[in-house]
């Protein structure tokens, strides 16, 4: 969501950045050239735009007529210059109308959301559905050939797109807490709309307006091309039409109107895209306080005893980096080593940005785009694991290592039923037939606590509660009987009582099926509840490891001590309230 | 002697989709907050705790019952009513990323409630500079934008904003839930210090019993729109009466493996004894 | 599902009624000029009055609308004031011609946009940048300009296609195909540009979603995730924009038909409006409204099939 709420820092600053970018610079130069052209030529030209020397018709470019003459001997360059001015001014006019109508309607409808708003939205989709040119044709008959009339109609026809954009942006913003705060302070609705809503949504609106300029130019051109414009005013469309009819005799006539229409249109579209890119960059530059590099403190790394059959998973000194847009790499995990034995429960704990989630995802090859493992080795069940090879990992995912994600609702495909989503991997990855897969899923759904598994199979994800969805995800992770499950904060999004039940469930299933559990969490209580061994992360590195009892009783690393000191459970209860005397 | 805030038989109902059945978020809830007191309101999602907070300041529709401030019914119909209410009651919201307008400077954000309350530009900026100090933010913060600050810092800004008009009561709607563990503790201490120094009352809403335990004088436990237990901090934590409170107390895991094992066994035993809750 | 479709259908019918009503009222604004347009400027006012009575423009507006509506429901769109024969007779073959060309253009747009959009989203890097650049250019250059340029290059310079002319597919399929290549190309360019951008955007959104990561975590092959899950979830916004595109093409067809001298709905519309041929214009508006409404209905139903949340709405 915040992606779309572009913060428009001072307009001048954004404008400067836009003009410095390659797209913006080209667009700016072309538009400036067009504007200069439209002003200078009419002022300096000795010719008349509407009458020409009939003897000079259809002459190619020469010293006197720099762009040649048309079929009645008129100077093309002068006509082009005037047409440029007319087109640009008319386009600005049309887009202004579209903006005034569309944006104010969008602001009002989006902010107030009354019945009137749904009526306006209905009218809007009505207007949007009408083919613009058809309406323009009808309008030109009734209203005549005046360019201002045509531009007003074009502006009105373009307003739905601005309305829709404004409406959707405002609907999103009005639920933001800062709007609630403004309401609380008693600010008037008008002030809230202008100060809080419009300032946040204006970015996308400006971008869209730029694109509409190009559309207005195209619409004008189309109308003029069809001959439905004022014949006394030179315009690109009718010049293009003339060039088209004379295509076989004077093909060079095509050059000028084509160049003009294309360059004007392209410039506006380039400019809009440049603005949009700059806004996106501006808002994502978040200065997060960089955590200090972690130092390894004495006694903080307690080595665990290697089991007889070897480690189930052995991670040695892996680094995880993300490539940045400017080409550099940002390191999020540095030299991390951890081991887990068969059937063991391991806790990985740290604050946000500590690298714990990235480590867990790296093991499964589920890093976001741009991420990769840049160093270290990993072995699973005795075999080397190539973490950057999707192909190698696909053989292991689901079948040997299961994954339970954090947000239950957003991790289920909204288009398919629960049953289908659970069965598909059993058939495709596990090789079961339909009946087998169904039976397995039903059994597991029962096991995780659903009293009516058959009914749950037919539900869609949006019909489930958070707790139910998480149980479904647990079934998904467990169904192929993997040797290890990596659980990435599986209870963080759940209520505390549901959390307790889900943890119970995970513990039972892990024991029953002999599955090792690698639990990533920021909650020390969860670690104490479910893990026998713990790794503490800070700033992408492991600062402490050992059994849960050791680490909690006797933390050696400063960070661990800080974490434990931040716990609120052991803080004193507040002293009782003492009423003020004479209150 | 009347309490600062009185909520009497409050009912909050949200209209159902397309005219379906209405959803009662808050069902016949009564509570009081005295001057200088902190009342904690604890519950899981869907318990109605946030709706109460929002209803008090007029952000949620009240379908029955009354809210009184210093004995007088709260009015929010006209903007001028809202402005006068804002001088007495402020809110600190949960999400530090959503409660500050990203396009405004910190100075604008902090002076906004003062300006709305009628203070001059000069007075507002003076007050705001002092406020930065008391929440531990550097003086040069004023010209920066929210995106340049961390979650914990933004929450301090939100706290400062609530304090500028020197209200009598602050509704704290899960103010530390979105923060990291270490940051949580720090911000909570800040809120506690401020409360002790200024004597402001808090209605402290949270899903986390541990958080509420540390700051509240009295605690109300909510479930499905109703208050199931309301007593002093000490009573609720050490001698809970309602089954739900007991269950809630045992459900949150503690960072001590040995003690957590005991608690888990207690919880599971209780579950077997009274299965459906 | 059925209830949803019925509701959308009812909404569509109301919309058609509204459009026809507004158009009818709007055209009345220019009513005074009608008889004069037909008879010429310097004519006896008595003759104008008589023609007005004959044309029936003196009766109350609502009654005339009611009559028109009643007739329209019986597929009687009246007699054209400029073309020989009834409106319906003239309109039908032209509608078929336009719809055929638009249908071909839509197929081209859908296939090419999907391919470009999906490739840009999946492969990223230079392919993505290339497709984006093509989109910007294709979107910025107006359709009629593209058509004119196509005629210049392919008909004039390279002599591959004819500049104008239209053959009936039933008469000679090959000739028909040759005659529609350039018009379809002119219509498709802008459409491909905007639709491929939209598809690229929605595919990227879905590829970055949590559940796609979880599906990978279940061990499913990447191609299966792409075709079975990603495309299905990304389809709904794509369908919506394709629907809008189809509606826009009807308008775009107007100019393209002028350029390529195709006897379709577009040229009919231009002729009818410039000669203020009321019944023809109303017939044309009604037909377009029906096409738009049917398109919206189909798109809505398809989206409902794909999206259970929409389908199961009470």
Most extensive interface between two protein chains, with residue counts: A-B, 66 and 78 residues
Strand element count of chain A: 10
- Uncertain segments of chain C are none
Number of distinct beta strands of chain C = 0
H and E string of chain A: HHHHHHHHHHEEEHEEHEHHHHEHEHEEHH
**Contiguous uncertain segments of 5+ residues of chain A:** 1-8
End-to-end CA span of chain C: 10 Å
Provide mean pLDDT of chain C, rounded.
81
Overall outline of chain A: elongated
Total of DSSP H or I helical runs spanning 4+ residues of chain A: 20
Strand content of chain C: under 5%
Average pLDDT of chain A: 86
Beta-strand proportion of chain A: 5-15%
Please, could you describe this protein's structure?
The complex is a heterotrimer of chains A (583), B (277) and C (314). Chain A has 583 residues and is an alpha/beta fold. Helix content of chain A is 52%, strand content 12%. In chain A, α2 packs antiparallel against α10. In chain B, α3 packs parallel to α5, α4 crosses α5 and α5 runs parallel beside α6. Chain C contains 13 helices and no strands. The interface between A and B is large, with 66 and 78 residues.
Keywords:
heterotrimer, A: 583 residues, alpha/beta, six-stranded mixed β-sheet, four-stranded antiparallel β-sheet, 20 helices, disordered N terminus, B: 277 residues, 10 helices, 10 strands, globular
Summarize the structure.
Chain A has 583 residues and is α/β, with parallel strands linked by helices. Chain A is 52% helix and 12% strand.
